[in-house]
Amino acid sequence: MSQTTITRAFEQWKAQQGATGEPVLLDEFVFANVPGLEPDRPVDRNETLPPAEQIVHRQAVSRKGVVNDNAVVHSVVLGADVGDFSFNWIGLLNKASGTLAMIVHAPLQQKLKTAEGQQGNVLTRSFLMEYNGAQAETGINTPAESWQIDFTARMAGMDERQRLENIDIFGAAAFFGDGYLVGKSGNQFYVTKGTGYVAGLRTTLAENLNITVTTRPVKVWLDVCWTGTLTSVWGVQSRITVADNLADYVQNGVQHYVFAVAGIDENGNITDLRPKGTLNEQQASDALRKHEQSRNHPDATTREKGFVQLSSDTNSESEMLAATPKAVKAAMDNANGRLEKNSNGGDIPDKKQFARTIGAVTSTTITLGE
Q1: What is the pLDDT of residue 150?
Q2: Which residues lie across from 110 on neighbouring strands?
Q3: Residue 194 has what pLDDT?
Q4: Are residues 231 and 284 in the same domain?
Q5: Residue 196 and residue 136 share a domain
Q6: Mean pLDDT, range 297-326, rounded to an integer
Q7: C-alpha distances in angstroms, 102 versus 26, 30, 209, 231?
Q8: Cis ω on the peptide bond leading into residue 275 (within 30° of 0)?
C-alpha cells in the first residue's frame, strides 16, 4: 500500500508565496528508485529529494485540474516512448525553487519503453492536494478530467505517415531557391538561409550560418530529427555537420536523418549537391540533363521532329540538312542578280553589250530603241 504526504517545506514556501501574492506553481515530477524503501510506513514530512544517483526520471507536469475550491490535482503521463526504469518514490515540486511539495512511497514499479517489438506501458500518476484556498492560490481553473489513454503510438504513427507522404512528394531531399546552398566569402564557408526537406522532414535555416572547414576534401551535411515530449509541441530540429561520411543514426532514442548538401574539394571549390524542387521537378530536371548530355538524339526528317545538322552548301539536294544564314544569303544574292522574264530585256543594264554578246549584230555601231 502506498503512503502519501504534503511536506512541511511546501507549507512554508506556500505561505511565502501567499505573502508576496505569487502563485503556488508546482511543475515537475521526480521519479526515484530508493533502496530499502518501505511503502507501508508513513512518510516523514521533513523528507527531501533522494540523492541524484537514485533519481531515474524527471518530467514536467502534464496536466493540472481543479476538483473544488480546496482541492487541485497535478498529473503526469509517462508515454510508451519513456523508459526503461523502475521506481518506488515519486515527488511533486516547484522546479525553480526546488521546493518538494508532495511525496508518494509506493511498491516498486516498472516503466517500459516500446522498442524492438516490445510493447511499452503508459503510466499516469496524479497527486491530489487538499488545503484551504488551493484553487485560488494555484490559479488552476481547468476542471479535472480523465486522460488515461495511450495516444503515443497513434500520434507517432500519424507523424510517420506524414513524413512518408512528404517523401512521396519531395523525395529523399528537396531544396528551394538558395536554401542551404553552401557558399564562400574569402576563406569563410557558409550555409545560406532557406528551406528544404530531408527524409520528409521540413526544416528552415533562419539566417546564413558560418561553418568551419578544417580539412579538405569534405562534405557538408544537413542533419534533421523530429523530436519533442509527450505533452509538448513537436518539431524538427536540425544542424549542419562537416564530415567525410555520415549516415542516418539513432541518438537517445531519436531517429536522425542526414543528407549531403555540398562537397568541398582540396582546393576549396564547392559542388552543390542539393536536389531542387519537388520530386517531379527533380525528375524532369534529371531527364533534361541526361538528354542534353546524350549523343543518341533522333535525326529530323520531313515527317518527324528531331535534331538537324547545319550546312552552308547551296548546291545540296539533301533533306536531312538545315541551311545556315550564309547559305540563305547566297541564294538571295543569286536570285537578286537574275533578270525578270516579264521585263523582256528591259532590265538589262548594258543593252548594247548584251546584243554583241548574243551575236544579234556584227557592227560596233547599233541603235536600239532607247
Answers
A1: 41
A2: 86
A3: 96
A4: yes
A5: no
A6: 72
A7: 10, 10, 46, 22
A8: no
